[in-house]
Write a structure and sequence with these properties.
alpha/beta, Aspartate Aminotransferase, domain 1, Aspartate Aminotransferase, domain 2, 2 domains, 4-stranded mixed beta sheet, 12 helices, globular
């Protein structure tokens, strides 16, 4: 008999009932150090007092009106996002998946309005993840994501990650845009080098096509800047954001330049829940924290500390771990042991990590993690590695 919850997740036998900062508390009282943060969602940790206050105040006033009316908190958050980014305009969604759908629509509508309707192809890369919608799985293109869900949305060209020559050759008169994550998350914490992002921007400018960045997982302070592409000094035309922007509340957005968004006129897109007062109240509070230079300085300092300690962990357990990769507090441990076994061994040591492709475990702690919690994380991962070695 099928469970009442559709069985699409292999859920761990853990039921968390409370969160405090970097900690999750199981129903039986055990305290787990959370290095997953809801897959890079809880940017300010669990139950952050400022987010609780923002949500509670808004919940006591107004939950929902729909986008038939002005939503002051939505305008406030849009103003903050545009003030701190390349973007001129923002559309709010409920998730990164919905943001992907709009980014694809926006890019194609852009060329349609410029009397070049043949420009519909979007170049994407192996190892990518852009959500589970029809556009998202078609963009990723992997068998794991697409098998059994045909016919797929057409118009996506898939290239090997890092193949510069193939990229140049793949651009044709039907190419509308290039879509990629500055740091692949699900794909195994694979950063795109700064010089490659610069080259990509130059290539898009040279060929007259749009650059779409997916910063759903790597954005909102995760790499030590508000958005990961800032390290390279480039800007995209369209960008997808979600996860950390809501600090745990479902919220996403598409950011765009005025030019790139020029085709999205009255009635071309919509959302009933997107940009609701609750989500935007929390998002505005998150932005106040993650745009503070002192906050980003602390993320970079803690990222350096964590990476240094992880390098030591790899050196201590060469039979379990192979290398450290990533950027900021978006780090991956490439494993020699099966990554799912490492995750399980972590459960036994009351530490939570997230598996990814290429036999990697992801370390995506709250950006507010403390130094002593980083030390505890290493101790628990060390104990997990010892147990795996002894097994």
């Amino acid at each position: 008999m099928i469970p009442t919850l559709l069985p699409t997740y292999a859920r761990a036998p853990l039921s968390f009932v409370k969160g405090e900062g970097s900690w999750l508390i199981e129903a039986d009282g055990r305290r787990f150090l959370d290095l997953g943060a809801g897959i890079a969602v809880n940017a300010l940790g669990h139950a952050h007092p400022a987010l609780v206050a923002a949500l509670t105040e808004q919940a006591g006033a107004l939950w929902h009106t729909s986008n038939l009316y002005q939503i002051p908190k939505q305008q406030e958050l849009a103003d903050k996002l545009t003030a701190h980014s390349f973007a001129d305009t923002v559309f709010f969604t409920n998730s990164g998946t919905e943001a992907c759908e709009l980014a694809v629509k926006m890019a194609r509508k852009y060329w349609y309005e410029k009397d070049q309707p043949e420009k519909t192809d979007i170049i994407a890369f192996t190892g990518s993840f852009h959500g589970r919608s029809s556009a998202g799985i078609a963009a990723a293109g992997s068998e794991k994501m697409t098998k059994g869900f045909g016919p797929l949305l057409p118009g996506f060209v898939h290239l090997e990650f890092g193949d510069h020559e193939a990229l140049t050759e793949a651009i044709t008169e039907t190419t509308a845009a290039i879509l990629l994550e500055p740091v692949q998350g699900e794909g195994g914490i694979r950063p795109v080098p700064d010089q490659c992002l610069k080259g990509l921007r130059d290539l898009c400018d040279e060929k007259g096509i749009l650059l779409i960045l997916d910063e759903v997982q790597c954005g909102v302070g995760r790499t030590g800047k508000l958005f990961a592409h800032e390290w390279s000094g480039i800007t995209p035309d369209i960008m997808m954001v979600a996860k950390g922007i809501g600090g745990g509340f479902p919220l996403g957005a598409v950011l765009a330049t005025e030019d790139a968004a020029s085709g999205m006129t009255l009635g071309t897109h919509g959302s009933t829940y997107g940009g609701n007062p609750l989500g935007c109240a929390v998002g505005a509070e998150v932005m106040d924290h993650v745009t503070d230079p002192a906050f980003l300085d602390s993320v970079n300092r803690k990222a350096g500390l964590l990476r240094q300690k992880l390098e030591g962990l790899v050196a201590t357990h060469p039979d379990v771990f192979e290398s450290v990769r990533g950027s900021g507090l978006m780090l991956g441990l490439k494993c020699k042991a099966a990554n799912v076994d490492v995750v399980q061994a972590g459960y036994d040591q009351l530490v939570l990590t997230v598996p990814a492709a290429d036999n990697v475990i992801r370390l995506l702690p709250p950006l507010t993690i403390e130094d002593d919690e980083i030390a505890q994380a290493i101790d628990r991962l060390d104990a997990a590695a010892v147990a795996l070695s002894a097994a």
